[in-house]
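Quick log. Single chain, no ligands specified.
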Amino acid sequence: MDLTVAAFYQFVALPDFRSLRAPLHAVCAERGIKGSILLAEEGINGTVAGSAEAVAALVDELRHGSLFTGRLDNLELKFSRAATMPFQRLKVRLKREIVTLGDPAADPNRQVGTYVSPADWNALIDSPDTLLLDTRNAFEVALGTFEGAVDPGIASFGQFKDFAARTLDPAKHKAIAMFCTGGIRCEKASALLLARGFSEVYHLKGGILKYLEEIPEAESRWRGGCFVFDERVALGHGLREHAAGAKAGHPKGASDEQF
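-> predicted structure:
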C-alpha cells in the first residue's frame, strides 16, 4: 500500500485554536488519516499520512474549508511517500507553541528572517562571510547535515536560545544562514535572532525536506539522512527512505521536537 505523507505548518493567529481541535480530529478520522497535528494560538504544525485522496481532501479543508476560514492561505506544505502507515494513531493536540522555544521575543507572526529557496541555497552557503547553522538537536545532526554546518550541540530546540546567547554575536556574525527539517524551527530561530539585534538572518524555505526534493543529488551539499518524525526515521535525496535511519531508530521524546 502506497501512502501519501503530508508535512505542513503555518504561523498565523488562531485565537480560537481550542475550538478547532475536535472538528479537525473528526475531519482526519473520518478519512482514515493518522499522524500528529499541533494547534496553538500562534498557528498549526502537523505531519499526517493516508491515502492520496484522503490527504488531498484534508489539505483542501485546511486551505479552503470553513474550519479555518481562509486563514491558512500561506500553508507550508510538502509531500512524500510511505510503503506502510508510518503512524500508529491520530493525535490533535493543543500547545502553548507549535514548536517550543520558550522566548516570547521569538514571534514569527511579527518578523522572520529572509527566505532562501533551495535553488539559491548552495550559493548562499558558499559565501565565506556566512555562518551556516543547523538548528536541530544533536541526534538529528548525527544522522545528516550540510557540509560545514555548525552543530549547536543541543538536546532539544528549547535550548537554542541559550546556545545563541552564549555563542552568537551580532557584531561578529554578520550573516547567518539557518536550516531545519521542514522550516518551522528556523522561522522561530530567525525571529529570535532578529529580536536580539542580528541584521542578516537567512533560512532555507521548506527546510531540508524541500531541498532534498528539489536539488539533484549530484549538486547537493547535503550528507547523510534527514530525520523525520515518524516510523520511516530518515529520508534522503528524492525524499526516499534512508538506510541509516533504520539503524538509528527514534530517540525517546523525539516526537515532541516537531518538524
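The longest strand covers residues 3-11.
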